[in-house]
Amino acid sequence: MTRAPTAQLDPRQASPTIADAFDALMSGRAQPEPPATDFGGPAIERRSISEQVANRILGMIKSGNLKSGDRLPTEQQMAIALGISRPPLREALKALTLMGVLESRQGGRYTVTDLSPSRLVAPFNAMLSIHDYDVAIHYEARTVVDLALVRLCGERASEAHRARIMELALDGRRVVADTVAFRLNDAEFHQAINVGADNVLLLTVAEGLYNIALELRRIAVTQADVMAKSVADHCRVAEALVRHDTAGAVEAYRHHLDHVRETTIRSLNGMAAAGGEAGE
């Protein structure tokens, strides 16, 4: 006897039957075992199904249908509700766990996390190893996020906070001969701008981007005049913020990021050359 094919999830249009079943499962009502899966045609790539499942769950979270602390149904119940087998479901749940959206607790049930920015960006810092590092992608992202934060800081920061940013910029001149002290000052300066923007999510993303490939930055600041150039850039950004010249602050920060990107590339090339020599 031939079984009816199981419908593939369509990320553009949720089936009312599936949606109703999942709502019922969230209320704890039992459902029958699903029939054996037979798609009645060429095999569908499992990843596409798992991605659709992950997007479906994310959609429920975004809409408020699932909230922080909600406990998901069992894998068996979710597989029934979504009309799929367990392997792609498990892939989707694993991906959402790595993203920090879900966490697995004792008993194998998944729970929606607190969805705090720090939790959601936690896997971000480890995303790129030095071997996978792409400086163009990194600084493209930093340019988008950091310049938005500078603009918001220029629009929102209090006078006291602008003065604090200026103080940190000037303090950089006093530590320019000490690489460790400079790195501490540099982190505080950038953090002060991010805080002044008053957007916790953008701040957290910026911190993740800042922390990528720090080993290259540590190498870069040992190069002649790199620290002095960065301190001068910081002062120009701070001076513009104190004057309430938001456009000038954004342009000065863009110039600073160009400088940081160039010195990072120099460090990356130097590390690659050293590795090549060591392998000869």
Describe the structure.
The chain has 280 residues and is mainly alpha-helical. The chain has 12 helices and 2 strands. The chain has helices at residues 16-26, 46-63, 75-82, 86-98, 117-121, 135-156, 159-174, 179-197, 200-210, 214-220, 226-242, 246-279; strands spanning 102-104, 110-112. The protein has a two-stranded antiparallel ribbon with strand order 1-2. Strand 1 and strand 2 (110-112) form a beta hairpin. Helix 6 (135-156) packs antiparallel against helix 12 (246-279), helix 7 (159-174) packs antiparallel against helix 8 (179-197) and helix 11 (226-242) packs antiparallel against helix 12 (246-279).
Can you summarize this structure?
With 280 residues, the chain is an all-alpha fold. It has 2 domains: 16-115, Winged helix-like DNA-binding domain superfamily/Winged helix DNA-binding domain (Arc Repressor Mutant, subunit A); 122-279, Up-down Bundle (Four Helix Bundle (Hemerythrin (Met), subunit A)).
